[in-house]
What does this fold into?
Amino acid sequence: MTKQPKFVEWPIWDENDVKMVSDVVKSGKWWCGAPQSQVGENIWKFQQEFSEFLNIKHVFACTNGTHAIEIALMALKIGRGDEVIVSDWTFVASASAVVSVGAVPIFCDIDPETFLLNPDLIENLITERTKAIICVHLGGMPCEMDKILQIAKAHDLKVIEDSAHAHGSSYKGKSVGSWGDCGTFSFQGGKVLNSGEGGAIVCNDDDLADKIYEVLDSGRNSGKWFYDHFSYGSDFRLGELNAALLRTQLKKYPDQLKTRNSNAIYLSKQLQQIPGVHPQKMHEDVNRCARYVFPVYFDPEKFGGIDYIQMYKELEEAGIPTDACYPPLHKLDLFVDVKLLPNVDYGSANWGGAKSNPENFPVVSRIYKNAFELSHRVLLSERESLDYIADTIKSMQKKYAN
Ligand SMILES: Cc1ncc(COP(=O)(O)O)c(C=O)c1O
It folds into this structure.
């Protein structure tokens, strides 16, 4: 087998990042005021630059990707008594944001090949209380947005695209985040575009944009007096230091995106040649995939019956950077034990106690037991590092098959 290669470290930074942040420190303008104010400038410039990058009209930077979903729900007037359909295989935030506004998340099982919300299962979950769908572009892989929008339209539902993993992914020629009513992003430290913490909400609709601004800036309206508060909102503003770092990181990002995308295609092809190894499938309508985490399903019988714990152990011993897969939402303690908001009726949920049984979520339960995730760091590494990953898994198969 080839020698253990070096994988890139994350995050990647240089003196431009340092200068940009230190310039903000020296300016004393660490906070950003209202859009027309003279305070700060990096937030407003970053929003403009990210909007051009995504080709989406409105971008609002905010504190993090969890808050971005909360703001989206509040701006779309989703709250107590409402149900929101959420993919079952995602980070807790996609559903905890729903809880935070007093609504009830309803978990939808995934497609066995793309690992994304399965559009064919949505209609069965719709009730008269359903108000929205949150689809998650897991690993940067775009969901089948046309199918999801068709269902949403037929049932008058809002669509929020949780694009926390998918900065610049595109489907049928359009950026993710621009398909639904709005999209949300995370700039948390592990993400492909990050400033340690941060998030954004994006949309094309002018009225929704005004509402989003109101929610994220304490009920203020752009152009109005600072101490006028027109409706309930909170303070979800991002600071200038984070925005400055995001601006220099965004300059490096398009090249990284190209590398990630082509390396992911290359690595998928290598892995697909190994019997019983199934990397997340990219369907033909995906033009570009930002590739955050890289989930792979393996048939245990092709590996002598080992489980994911053994698989991770082997990969780690070989020095291959991995990430833990998200446990399916339905089996997280907060949902099984219904430790959520007081005075909210969760009786209609399709999870909690016995309802969180894996048999009610058969696909995600099977995939999760036999899946591993490669870190996105591998996708910025040299091709020989990708060959090393494929070779390691091939040798493992030989070892366990005997
Ligand atoms: C799919 C998904 N949605 C939302 C979030 C929340 O983002 P943040 O950590 O910035 O709050 C994350 C973070 O990992 C995520 O993976």
